[in-house]
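Priority: medium. Attachment 1 of 2:
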């Protein structure tokens, strides 16, 4: 799993709601994101931590071919489409999300 750019989505799921959220992620959302131009792969992990109020933590890590691919994703239609999907499924109340990204530093 090599990629010069990673897009990291850390999220917390409301207790008792993991089945609904993970069904959406694993039932097509992850594949849709990886199908966007420049995305190479994705991995999902349950973290060994939770928020102060008990929401379990998870992370999605996406590998991309270039910083330009990630910027094009951000300004494209896909994030808006995914936001509509979350809202329609009632997932926004079940999730807390933080996003970050980075570029590989060679020689480290």
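Attachment 2 of 2:
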């Amino acid at each position: 799993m090599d990629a010069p750019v990673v897009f990291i989505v850390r999220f917390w799921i409301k207790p008792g709601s993991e089945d609904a959220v993970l069904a959406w992620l694993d039932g097509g959302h992850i594949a849709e994101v990886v199908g966007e131009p420049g995305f190479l792969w994705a991995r999902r992990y349950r973290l060994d931590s939770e928020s102060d109020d008990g929401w379990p933590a998870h992370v999605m890590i996406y590998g991309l071919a270039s910083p330009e691919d990630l910027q094009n994703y951000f300004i494209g239609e896909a994030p808006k489409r995914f936001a509509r999907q979350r809202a329609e499924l009632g997932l926004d109340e079940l999730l807390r999300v933080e996003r970050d990204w980075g570029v590989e530093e060679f020689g480290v």
